[in-house]
Amino acid sequence: MLKSPYQTYQQSSVQTSTPIQLVLMLYDGAIRYTKASAEAIRAKDYSTANLNLKKAQSVIHELTASLNFDFEVSKNLANLYEYFLHNLIQANIKKRCQIRG
Fold first, then answer.
1. Which of 2, 11, 78, 79 has the most CB atoms less than 10 A away?
2. Structural domain of 83
3. What is the CB neighbour count within 10 angstroms for residue 43?
4. How far lies 98's CA from each of 1, 16, 20, 39, in Å?
């Protein structure tokens, strides 16, 4: 299967990024997918909303898996990520969002 130039660029970008850059990419993805799901919910396009909410959940799961619990901040981040997951799941079940703008 041939990759598009954009897919090749993305793969190269991920492979050459520092750990901090990778975490920032994950945050950017979570925000992008969450905003896209909110727009889809407002448009009553529930299939697209579901897809983007599941993608956002996957990103949050990756962030959780990347935590190093040798540091106290990781416990706090794990709690935040759990809260985010709960809200993403509730948005998907109820097809309602709290995001404005």
1. 78
2. 19-94
3. 10
4. 40, 36, 29, 11
Indicate the pLDDT class of residue 100, thresholds 50, 70 and 90.
Answer: low
Give the number of other CB atoms < 10 A from CB of residue 19.
8
* Within a domain: 11: no
What's the number of domains the chain is made of?
A: 1
Residue at 3 is within a domain: no
How does pLDDT run across 2-41, given as a tens digit for each residue?
A: 778 767 766 767 777 899 999 999 999 999 999 999 999 9
pLDDT at 89: 96
Q: Is-above-0.90 flag for pTM? A: no
What CATH number should be reported for the domain holding residue 82? 1.20.120.340
HEC secondary structure over 22-37: HHHHHHHHHHHHHHHH
